[in-house]
Amino acid sequence: SLDYGKAKFFATRFSALNLTKSVVYTVKVPIDDILAYIERENEVVCLPVCIGGKMEVIKEDSFL
User: Fold this and answer.
1) Which of 32, 36, 24, 38 is nearest to 52 (CA)?
2) 21-46 b/e with 16+ CB inside 10 Å = b?
3) Phi and psi torsions of 59, nearest 5°
4) What's the half-sphere exposure (Cβ side, CA atoms, 13 Å) at 30?
5) H or E stretch covering 9
6) What pLDDT, on a 0 to 100 scale, did the predictor assign at position 57?
């Protein structure tokens, strides 16, 4: 999600399930690794790192 608040909501919505932690990453992604933009959800789909995508972690926020 491009919306930090929405990302945090989804990362923490199952806190009653006794998870050890949830993490929201802020990343920098090369434009060539962006596969799709879903406007109604304000989300970006990126090429996964496991198949060659490159992401630079800018910030990591841990919850729970």
Assistant:
1) 32
2) ebebeeeeeeeebeeeeeeeeeeeee
3) -155, 145
4) 8
5) helix 4-12
6) 95
Q: What is the pLDDT of residue 14?
A: 82
Residues 6 or more apart from 29 whose CB is under 8 A from it? Answer: 44, 46, 53, 54, 55, 56
Which tens digits make up the pLDDT trace of 11-58?
A: 888 877 777 788 999 999 999 999 999 999 999 999 999 999 999 999
C-alpha span between 58 and 25 (Å, rounded):
8
Assigned token pair, 11: 């990362």
Please give the pLDDT value at position 56: 95
Residue with tokens 């933009």: 37
